[in-house]
Structures are given as structure tokens and as C-alpha cells.
Write a structure and sequence with these properties.
The chain is mainly beta. Helix content is 12%, strand content 36%.
């Protein structure tokens, strides 16, 4: 009934909303915090050698249920995913973000000057607090963050303005991005992460994993109804329809995000994962 990916419960501790529904030693409301590193891998256990379930991006909100031995047990506000992060990757004092990063990835500079060595790389979907906008020495405009670092102005927009864009166009910005199991950023991404992050950039929410998306994202449709933006599912895999003949997906065959002929993909994938199991319109 309860999925450990979406419900924070263990024999010793559980989120307060599950009181009376699961057995636990204690129930906690948790504390609010934000991701303070460019990309934070979320793992199913407090162990750095465990594979990642998903990733959280700079400025995203989380609830922290426990801090122990350098690890935090958290739940992401965006999609409800539960897991473990290093305590060094979060902050309880970051200000409310105002803007979101638009391109697949962008550089964060120590000041408004493109020739300065960059501080870090932020992915599409990262959230930052802008305090000023200035012109750099080469007439490029930058936004300045509260710590004095700067991002090219055209690479962000107010969070309040998210919405209305074609999510397929956004997904195409990830062409040739390396495939990463559990990836959800412009540095590496998996099939369901591509769907979720692209939809998020249009103001639409989506579950994180392929099985969740296949079970409840949008509405089921028939194959003959497929059009741009619809989703095709295989066991453990999802692809986005670019048009009735072409899909876009992050896949382990090329280890990247590619466009591919739909019928050719069905034949190629079929020997390992069988035929498509369903189609949905998000």
C-alpha cells in the first residue's frame, strides 16, 4: 500500500502524515530546507556507494525528517520522492528563490564578468534568488545573486512566469545529453527524468519514475491516437513523441538523449523489453 519512494516510513521513524497508517517508533513533521549544491543525488540508503534513485537541483525545497552521521533523510517537495542526501548538500537558511535556470546548463560566475573562472555549473530547473541585474564590462547583462555571484541574464526567468511553453521543445534541448540512471539534470538524465524535468519547465508536475508515470500521468490513449507530446511506455522505459513517426528519449543503447524512428525503436527495443505496454497524453 505504501511505497518507500513516496512515503517516509521506517520502523523507528515516519512522517507525521502517516500516523495511524504505519507502525513506527515516532512520527515527525520534519524541518524545511533547500538544496545548496548544483545537483544532489538522492539515494535509497545513507551509503555513498548505493545507486541513485533521482537527483534534486539547486534551490529545490525539501523536508528533512532526520539528520544522522552526516546524512539526511528527506522528502522532495516537487514530486514527494523520499531518500537520503549528504547533510552538506542542504541548507536551512537559504532565501526563497525568485528565478529558475532556463538552458540545459549555465555557468555561475564569481562576479558579472564572463572571463572570470566560473564557480559552478547549474542545471535547467535550478532555482536562485536574484537581488540585482547589471551590465558587465562587455555589455552582457547579468543577474546578481544574494552571495554576489552572477548568471547571464537571459539564462533565467522569474519562477512566476513558468508555464505555457511546449514541453517537447524543452526536451529537445537535451539532445545528446549523456544518459545517467537516476539523472535529472542537464549534466546527465534518464528517460523519466527527461519527461519530468521538461514538463516542470512548463509549470506542469509529473511523477518521477517510469512506473509512476505509466500509472497516472495524464490520460491513457490508444496507439492510433498518438501525436506530438504523447508518451510511449515499455517496461522500465518511456519516450516522448516528437511527431507520429519520431520519438525522443534518454536511453541506455546510445547512452544519451536521441531522436529515433518510432517503428525502428519498437523493433530494436522489442528483443529486450517486449512491445510498448501503453500510451498516455500528459
Amino acid at each position: 500500500m505504501f511505497d518507500r519512494r513516496l512515503h517516509a516510513f521506517r520502523p523507528d521513524i515516519a512522517e507525521a502524515s502517516l500516523k495511524g497508517k504505519v507502525e513506527a517508533g515516532r512520527f515527525v513533521e520534519g524541518e524545511k530546507a533547500r538544496i545548496a549544491v548544483p545537483v544532489a543525488p538522492l539515494r535509497p540508503a545513507p551509503d555513498a556507494i548505493r545507486g541513485i534513485d533521482t537527483e534534486l537541483l539547486f534551490g529545490e525545497d525539501i523536508t528533512v525528517f532526520e539528520r544522522r552521521d552526516g546524512w539526511c533523510w528527506v522528502k522532495a517537495e516537487s514530486d514527494g520522492y523520499v531518500g537520503y542526501l549528504p547533510e552538506t548538500s542542504i541548507s536551512s537558511s537559504m532565501s526563497e528563490p525568485t528565478h529558475i535556470v532556463l538552458p540545459q546548463r549555465t555557468f555561475l560566475y564569481p562576479e558579472p564578468e564572463l572571463r572570470k573562472p566560473y564557480v559552478s555549473v547549474l542545471s535547467m530547473g535550478s532555482r536562485v534568488r536574484v537581488t540585482d541585474a547589471v551590465e558587465g564590462p562587455r555589455h552582457n547583462r547579468y543577474v546578481v545573486l544574494e552571495d554576489g555571484t552572477a548568471i547571464f541574464e537571459k539564462h533565467v526567468k522569474p519562477i512566476s512566469e513558468i508555464g505555457g511553453d511546449d514541453y517537447v521543445d524543452i526536451a529537445f534541448r537535451f539532445l545528446e545529453t549523456p544518459y545517467l540512471w537516476g539523472g535529472r539534470s542537464g549534466l546527465g538524465i534518464d528517460c523519466s527524468g527527461l519527461v519530468q524535468l521538461s514538463l516542470m519547465m512548463t509549470g506542469r508536475s509529473a511523477p518521477r519514475d517510469t512506473d509512476m508515470q505509466a500509472a497516472g500521468l495524464g490520460e491513457p490513449i490508444e496507439r492510433e491516437e498518438l501525436r506530438r507530446g504523447d508518451l510511449v511506455f515499455w517496461p522500465g522505459h518511456v519516450a516522448i513523441m516528437k511527431d507520429p513517426e519520431t520519438i525522443l528519449h534518454a536511453n541506455g543503447n546510445t547512452m544519451s538523449v536521441v531522436r529515433e524512428n518510432f517503428e525502428a525503436a519498437i523493433e530494436r527495443i522489442g528483443w529486450l523489453y517486449d512491445r510498448p505496454t501503453g500510451y498516455r497524453r500528459p
